[in-house]
Amino acid sequence: MYKTFSMELAGRTLSVDVGRVAAQANGAAFMHYGDTTVLSTATASEKPREGIDFFPLSVEYEEKLYSVGKIPGGFNKREGKASENSVLTSRVIDRPMRPLFPKDYRNDVTLNNLVLSVDPACRPELVAMLGSAIATSISDIPFAGPCAMTQVGLIDGEFVLNPSQEQWKNGDLNLTVASTSEKVIMIEAGANEIPEAKMIEAIYMAHEVNQSIIAFINQIVAEVGKAKHEYTSCAVPEELFAAIKEIIPPEEMEEAVFTDVKQVREENIRKITERLEEAFADKEEWLPVLGEAIYQYQKKTVRKMILKDHKRPDGRAITQIRPLAAEIDIIPRVHGSGMFTRGQTQICTITTLAPLSEMQRIDGLDENEVNKRYMHHYNFPSYSVGETKPSRGPGRREIGHGALAERALIPVLPSEDEFPYAIRTVSETFESNGSTSQASICASTLSLMAAGVPIKKQVAGISCGLVTGDTDDDYIVLTDIQGLEDFFGDMDFKVAGTHDGITAIQMDIKIHGLTRPIVEEAIAKTKEAREYIMNEIMTPCIAAPRAEVGQFAPKIISVQIDPEKIGDVVGQRGKTINEIIARTGVKIDITDDGKVSVCGTDKEMMDKAVEMVKIITTDFQEGQIFKGTVVSIKEFGAFIEFAPGKEGMVHISKIAKERINRVEDVLTLGEQVTVVCLGKDKMGRISFSMKDVAQV
């Protein structure tokens, strides 16, 4: 016997079946929102994982193409590795929920979301987010929830709660807000230059809706929730802290961590660790948690100095940004490059331009195949933080950072009509000490402008941190956090935008939510900081996009043809278009509405290809002059190819002004000639004359 719970949410019914499926999971919620159906489960191991100093949480979002009536592409017709959308959705679920589990909990926990059916009016990502919160809340897994999530779109200036797939894709705002019963706990946004005040309004509209969802979840928990299980705490013993402080007094720890050189700080901590390992060599029960104890000691030291003394590890003022530098054209032969440095964070972004045919095609949970014209990829090699490990390709963090930068820059990109290129930017992390994702936004803006991409405005990004005390009023917001302040602080609030508004937000926190004053202060400080970055650092480096793409970038010429003549250009089985490409070395894209884009680096060959297309698609009229090649000689005349796949005939009587007996006396195969069109003969063939036009 199972129970069903339902509520009205943004004009649609959200219903949850508990006890219907997946009964062996610690918690399971069979979610329905419209026709979108998602099974969300929460499971935990019975015992803690040994030898770790973190909470092992895994969040999975599984896209099944049967949910939209598709069979996967590829050879084996089976879903492969997680898509980029799956990874990003998993991260959005993970970020607000992770802080709500006990900090000393070491049992493995997996939150799995299986997308079974997709209704385009009800986004499955939202349903999975709510399902994970419900499944965990009703389970016996320790959890300080519930939490809830709401999405907000902006259509024609009006906010839309939990928008449809179409509204989400075409609106001016993609905002996801997670809340507890008291505070905002996560913000993720992509926006078309939304003013700060409008963004805050949207955030707290979502927060209000979240309160009704939390009341709904509390009702479910009251009826079917399990008692939370006991667990083995992995907290550091207080007597160990006391023993450490006797050997390393607070003043010595302050001196060790308060330096603006990361390597010096790490060396100081290494020496302290060696001293403590030697001192506690006979305390076998302490050694496994000694590393965590030293980490927490550093954390308490840094937090106390920032919050009480307003002293930052590198000596900066609370609102001061680290030294900045911007450069362009540091990489030869690429289509565009820009490097942005902020303290010990350094990103180089390379831009590559290509024909629109090289857009990324994604087979996802959408009615149609999705095409991505702009792709931003972010790489984070181990050398950027002075470590050594083999590269295994991009992880979830790299995918998330790349998507954040991509979101931030899309609003300022030119349209396909204005700039008919596919665009890829790759951000290489040369050095990292905090907020590389925001540095990659600045570097990408420089790189795009250097490449001649006519972006509408500059975009800059910056991150704010937070240290809180014992009360809601006891806090301090830090501008431009470095790695240490991120590790030991409570918040990483990233905001990117132009002079006119916000284009992206990503907020991560480690505490149980933020008050409205903190959110407003963080948004205000990031605006002030990004204005400074654009005005004082980026504009002096490059003030506007270059007028033309670079020497090594492909050039594109676009012409419009009658859509009914597309078949003439393509030819049977692509014969004609492939012949044009073979003769000129260009790339050709044709859209369904008849737009032909010719891409190449040799202007002469591009013009030749365009001329061929125009000839093929022109209705032949008497008097038109063409240049062509003799491709066949007969007794009665010669056939002249004047464009790939297009031939006309010159009768023997029209070859020369004087009478000739044999065509071969005047023409040879492969000879280039100039002809004038006489119209069509009785057989419908194009008829040419050579004698009525001067031969050049």
What labels describe this entry?
Ribosomal Protein S5, domain 2; single chain; alpha+beta; six-stranded mixed sheet; 696 residues; 5 domains; 30% strand
Give helix % range. Answer: 25-40%
CATH class descriptor of the largest domain: Alpha Beta
CATH third-tier fold name of the largest domain = Ribosomal Protein S5, domain 2
Q: What structural class results from the helix and strand content? A: alpha+beta
Uncertain residue segments? none
- Secondary-structure arrangement, i.e. CATH architecture of the largest domain: 2-Layer Sandwich
> What's the number of helices?
15
Distance between the termini: 91 Å
State mean pLDDT (0 to 100 scale): 91
Q: Characterize the biggest β-sheet.
A: 8 strands, antiparallel
Number of domains: 5
Principal-axes geometry comes out as elongated
β-sheet strand percentage? 25-35%
Count the beta strands: 29
GO molecular function, one term: transcription coregulator activity
Keywords: Cytoplasm, Magnesium, Metal-binding, Nucleotidyltransferase, RNA-binding, Transferase
Family: Belongs to the polyribonucleotide nucleotidyltransferase family.
Cofactor: Mg(2+)
Gist?
The strands form six sheets. An eight-stranded antiparallel sheet has the order 8-7-9-10-21-20-18-19, with helices on both faces. Strands 1-2-3-4-6-5 form a six-stranded mixed sheet.
Structure overview:
By secondary structure, the protein is an alpha+beta fold. It folds into 5 domains: 3-224, Ribosomal Protein S5, domain 2; 238-309; 324-466 and 517-541, GHMP Kinase, N-terminal domain (Ribosomal Protein S5, domain 2, 2-Layer Sandwich); 555-617, Ribosomal Protein S8, Chain: A, domain 1, CATH 3.30.1370.10; 625-689, OB fold (Dihydrolipoamide Acetyltransferase, E2P) (Beta Barrel). The strands form 6 sheets. An 8-stranded antiparallel beta sheet has the order 8-7-9-10-21-20-18-19, with helices on both faces. A 6-stranded mixed beta sheet has the order 1-2-3-4-6-5. Strands 11-12-13-17-16 form a 5-stranded mixed beta sheet. Strand 12 (336-342) and strand 13 (345-354) form a beta hairpin. The model has no long low-confidence stretch (mean pLDDT 91). Mg(2+) binds at residues 486, 492.
